[in-house]
Amino acid sequence: MLNQNQTPLLDALKANAARPHAPFYTPGHKQGEGIPQPLADLLSKAVFRADLTELADLDNLFAPQGVIQEAQQLAAETYGASQTWFLVNGSTCGIEAAILATCGTGDKIILPRNVHSSAIAGLILSGAIPIFLNPEYDSVLDIAHSITPNAVESALQQHPEAKAVLTVYPTYYGVCGDLSAIANITHQYNIPLLVDEAHGGHFGFHPELPTPALAAGADLTVQSIHKVLGAMTQASMLHVQGNRIDCDRISKALQLVQSTSPSYLLLASLDAARQQMALHGKMLMSRTLQLADEARTKISQIPGLSVLEMPRLGGSPGFVTLDKTRLTVTVSGLGLTGFEADEIMDEKFAVTAEFASLQHLTFIISLGNTPADIEQLVQGFTTLAKEYCRSNLTVKNQVWLNLNRTLDYAFQLSPREAFFAVSEILPLTQTNKRICAEIVCPYPPGIPVLMPGEVITKPVLDYLQQIRAMGGLISGCADSSFRTLKVVKE
């Protein structure tokens, strides 16, 4: 057992920041002496004294042998990994590295269509061929959940040569699928299960939270420590266990997608956040869960509002459990869209959600929230329901569901080939049967309908136009008005 009280990287950074010396190395502001005054006024010079580079005592992120190595070993023990890497380019670079380390040009990888854009970037960088699975979809709430074990098993039966399976756990809404079953199926083919656990870095610190991905059998997981714990924005970790992942390939892949001038402020924040959770994690998560339960209970009692709850009777294969620190409030019963409610809550009541969708607002309740925050959140919704309620909003979710079931997807080129191909922008009416050169993702349900390399078809175009007509949004593509599309030039 390592001494989890230690913060080797943070201590080394503190010592170097306080050491009197003449700095003739990067960064150019020289420990804050050259920082513009408005920035110094905002942050104070203390933070810039610690904004240092790879000095001898601070180790090297790409070949750690000193304090970074020690800090990563402490993190690996805390999170139950055999090896951990600190990430300064967010979970984005971790997902990209995971795909690069397991797949090469032409290799197949199985993954959900509602993956983060970093997974698409990983496909483009690696040249891998995606085998996309549709996640389970709740047509009442218009929320996409997880892919199911049956879907993964069917895909592997059809593509036994696949090199890896990647899944999202939890989803942006805090929903967790049956990851243990997916891991068992994946391992029957002796390939690794990669997990985008960006929003689940807190799972291992309280029994009322979902099972962490590694404990559920994942071979590799990427966690955004900054999203739900105490690290600075952009600070994440990649964890590996077992022997299905080549750790040397992970290290080399990270050298391709991480900065060669890593921020030691971000690295030290990972060291400190690990210590905080190793020593006080259960207490902090108990308090966070208590705040979340209070918010969920009070908001669910407000007329016209409902909250996403834990599934009953074991749930479904795509929704086994819920991260209770993630609060999704359905506002359509007030006759408001989520986008309207988000604007009112932010501007009138100074309550800012993580994100809005057509029917919902979703909030992250973390160790940084206070009872006053929860009181303000509840009061905001109470006033919203009293003063802004209008006739009920009718949302035709079933139309989206039925349309989505009729869509056929076919890759003519790999995402990499389509990304690097010469492209052109055409009016929507001229894109039928052309090869898409960008991502097109409608909200709801938040599942990409077109990817680079896929053939555009009339049913797909009709589906997307129907979503826009019913008030949905189209994201990912260059033209958010969805009058034009970027296609591969013939």
List low-pLDDT spans.
395-403
Shape: globular
Number of helices: 16
Helix residue percentage: 25-40%
Oligomer type: single chain
Main sheet strand line-up = 1-10-9-8-6-2-3
- Structural class designation: alpha+beta
Overall mean confidence score, pLDDT: 93
Radius of gyration: 23 Å
Counted beta strands: 19
Main beta sheet, described?
7 strands, mixed
Indicate the proportion of strand residues. Answer: 5-15%
Task: Describe the protein in words.
With 490 residues, the chain is an alpha+beta fold. Helices cover 38% and strands 14% of the residues. The protein has 16 helices and 19 strands. The strands form six sheets. It has a seven-stranded mixed sheet with strand order 1-10-9-8-6-2-3, sandwiched between helices. The chain has a four-stranded antiparallel sheet with strand order 11-13-15-14. Helix 4 runs parallel beside helix 11, helix 5 runs parallel beside helix 6 (117-126) and helix 12 packs across helix 13 (371-387). Residues 395-403 have low confidence and may be disordered.
